[in-house]
Amino acid sequence: MAMPDVKRKAAPRPTLRGLSHEMARLRSRVEELEDLRDLNAAVVRNQGKPGVAWDKAKAALGLG
How many beta carbons lie within 10 A of that of residue 35, not counting itself? Predict the structure, then answer.
C-alpha cells in the first residue's frame, strides 16, 4: 500500500530576537543545573555531620 504524499510546513526561519530569547532561556537553565549540582555536592559533603538547631541558625543570622 502506497503512503500518501504528506506536505509538511516549512519551519519558520530563526530570527535574532528568537535566538536571543532561546539563548537566555538556555543560559538560565544551565545556571539552575549548576546550582543543583553545587547543592547535591554540599549534601554529600555534609552527610553525617550534625545539623544546626533552627533557633541557633536564626540567632546567628540576626533573625530573632
Answer: 10
